[in-house]
Amino acid sequence: MRQTWWRDPLVALIAAALVLSLSMGLRQTFGLFIEHLHLTTGTSISGISLSIAFQNLLWGAATPFVGMLADRYGTGRCLVGGGVLYSAGLAMLAFADSPLMVHLGGGLLVGLAVAATGFPWSWQP
Predict the structure, then answer these.
(1) Is the separation of the CB atoms in 55 and 114 below 8 Å?
(2) Under 8 Å between Cβ of 93 and 102
(3) What is the pLDDT of residue 120?
(4) Residue 117 to residues 36, 67, 70, 104, 125: CA-CA distances in angstroms?
(5) What pLDDT digit, counting tens, does each position of 47-104 carry?
(6) Is the separation of the CB atoms in 52 and 106 below 8 Å?
(7) Residue 50: C-alpha distances to residues 29, 106, 125 (Å)
């Protein structure tokens, strides 16, 4: 029986590489915009750095739970949810006018989004 083209392992590998490249590529560029965020939002550079540090901690803490959600509800749904969170976090960060919006957008929402679009896993005995 012939598989459909989108179930080919090469297509899955290319799709995974594309998702990870977008997710990690966006996250890695935040350091380039610290000065701009500092000037436009009035948030101190240490406050923006704290937001990115919170993002990294949340990414690590939420990853196993997102992996469990992916096992339960499907990887595609978790990727779409992560994409929505990523978009909301980046939009909030782009229009931030206070330190709270920087922390919520760049820290909380993007941290959860990176967990959903990165390498989620779950422990199954």
Answers:
(1) yes
(2) yes
(3) 63
(4) 26, 10, 11, 18, 24
(5) 999 999 999 999 999 998 998 898 899 888 999 999 999 999 999 999 999 999 999 9
(6) yes
(7) 16, 10, 36
The per-residue pLDDT for range 7-27, each reduced to its tens digit, is 788 888 898 888 888 888 888
3-state secondary structure of 19: helix
pTM of the model: 0.84
CB proximity list for 60: less than 8 A, separation 6 or greater: 115
Q: Do residues 86 and 117 touch, judged by C-beta distance below 8 A?
A: yes
- What HEC string does 31-68 produce? HHHHHHHHHHHCCCHHHHHHHHHHHHHHHHHHHHHHHH
Q: Which pair of tokens denotes residue 121?
A: 């896993």
Please report where in the chains the tokens 């995974």 appear, as a residue: 16
pLDDT reading at 122 higher than 80:
no
Please say whether the beta carbons of 56 and 112 come within 8 A: no
CA–CA gap between residue 24 and residue 35 (Å, rounded):
21
